[in-house]
Amino acid sequence: MKICKLFISVLILLPLLSTSGCQLNSKKQVLATTESQVKIRSIQTRSFDSNNKNKVMRSVISTLQDLDFIVDNADLILGSVSGTKFGGSGRSSYQLKMTVSVRPRGESQMIVRANAQYNLEAIEDPKPYQDFFVALGKSLFLTAQNID
Amino acid sequence: MNKRILLYISLTATLFIVGCGGIPKDALILSADTIEERQIQSRYYDTKNEEAIISASAAVLQDLGFTLDKSETRLGFLVASKDRDARDTGQIAAAVFVALLGGGNMPIDKRQKIRVALIVTPGLDGKKTHVRAKFQRKVWNNREQVSRVETLNDLDIYQEFFSKLSKAVFLEANNL
């Protein structure tokens, strides 16, 4: 009987625990992040040795296409490229959105920053960004460097 | 009794875990199919005139009923879309069959948004122009839920598109 009571209390507690991470006010999402601003910038940013913004942006676009994204928008002056990927199939299908911005640093470098959202979450894990910069490096024939 | 409780607990735990999916590991990794897909989605045209190709592409997309959403010709980029019917006879027949068997009202595809992104780049040899198109669609069912999102990789879609583009490039070059 004791075991039964224990199980019942676990049964009541478990859903409570699972909802404890839930938000009480969804408006908080407007400015919400889970990582610090500096950390997010460092995982999302790399520099490449190139002084040709147009070429770097065209490489970003072709990398996004290789990764199965459809480019939604691109602007040379702003240096931004945005794309959407519809991945998976059936119940496991997902939507991945990404914006990549390119801006010059000094005479010989381009700073590339990518940020992505997977369905309803921001991606703040470094691994997907590393993968993206490896793919972009291949397209540019250059190695991505961490920024200082 | 204990078994039942264990079953409840495992079910609750499963429901709790299901929400924690996260991005698939290979989502941003170039796959082995990349080169093959790139070939299906690309063509080279014997001209250095990037502007002519992009304007011919826009004209072909208009021929096909697409409306242009965005473009940045300095980067050789344009994106267009169209909304169309997505009802499928096979699916309707299956839904009727299920309903006759007492399976209730099965949702069927109703409408779709088809998008195409087109990228024009100068060829590496400096004599040709490279065009890459990618088609994608999002389908909604009759309950207005998104039932499918996919990139279209059917060879015949791309073949037909590029054959139309070749014609348009020829027509525009000859001012027809």
Summarize this entry quickly.
With 148 residues, chain A is of the alpha+beta class. Helices cover 37% and strands 30% of the residues of chain A.
Features:
heterodimer; A: 148 residues; alpha+beta; Alpha-D-Glucose-1,6-Bisphosphate, Chain A, domain 4; seven-stranded antiparallel beta sheet; 7 strands; 37% helix; B: 176 residues; TATA-Binding Protein; six-stranded antiparallel beta sheet; 5 helices
Question: Secondary-structure element sequence of chain A?
Answer: HHEHEEEEEHE
CATH level 3 topology of chain B: TATA-Binding Protein
CATH class of chain A: Alpha Beta
**Structural domain count of chain B:** 1
Mean pLDDT of chain B: 85
Just name the CATH architecture of chain A.
2-Layer Sandwich
* DSSP strand tally of chain A: 7
Q: Calculate the terminal CA-CA distance of chain A, rounded to whole Å.
A: 62 Å
Please tell me what the overall shape of chain A is.
elongated
Strand content of chain B: 25-35%
Question: For the report, how would you describe the main beta sheet of chain A?
Answer: 7 strands, antiparallel
